[in-house]
Write a structure and sequence with these properties.
Blueprint (H helix, E strand, L loop, with lengths): L2 H12 L8 H13 L4 E5 L5 H7 L4 E6 L2 H11 L5 E5 L2 H10 L4 E6 L6 H8 L3 E10 L5 H6 L2 H7 L3 E5 L5 E5 L2 H11 L1
Helix pairs in contact: 1-3, 5-6, 6-8
Bound molecules: S-adenosylmethionine (SAM).
The site of S-adenosylmethionine (SAM) has 21 residues, from α3, β2 and α5.
Length: about 190
Amino acid sequence: MDSTILQKIKELELERTSWNVTEENMNIMLNYCRQNDLHRLLEIGSFNGYSALNFALICEEVISLEIEEKRFMEATNNCQIAKNIKIILADANEYMKQLITKKELFDAILIDGNNSQYSNYLTLAIPLIKDTGMIFIDNTVSHKDRLEKKGFFETLQKSNLSFKELNTTKGLIVAFKTRKFYAAQNSSKN
Ligand SMILES: C[S@@+](CC[C@H](N)C(=O)[O-])C[C@H]1O[C@@H](n2cnc3c(N)ncnc32)[C@H](O)[C@@H]1O
């Protein structure tokens, strides 16, 4: 493990805010990455770079999108010690469309941006995730009402992805493609 990255994570832990992924959810996602060989990760919502730094300990490449310039600068500054992190100043709703056009693929995607846009992030994440990949969706308990109101759970059901809703303090959904997803894709082609 890279001790410089660990040190920076410890520093950011001391100034943790409610916007950072909880330690509980972070550890669960890192375990999924370790156990399933998830190496190329896309994150929606860098904030101060806390979760990107954690993923950088396990993943080969972390691309993290941040819409706010001030937060982009802060995350870039905090993450400069990790060669495998790229922080990009962009609206994920637009940038992910470019990634789709370029046929980019990821082993894992973390949805942790503006919760009123989760539905759209999920729709864009589906073509970007490898067949064996996983989509992590943060704060699904703490922001349940808002996500419900904005149609996120309906989009998730209609996506035909299989998913597990983990009963953590703030909630975390892990979604992935299984036979159900491909069967629905094939039947829509016929
Ligand atoms: C909950 S915070 C992310 C926390 C971060 N993952 C961590 O654990 O440190 C959400 C971040 O998403 C950013 N954001 C909101 N909408 C976005 C969008 N459409 N594209 C990219 N970033 C966005 C916000 O500016 C904010 O910094």
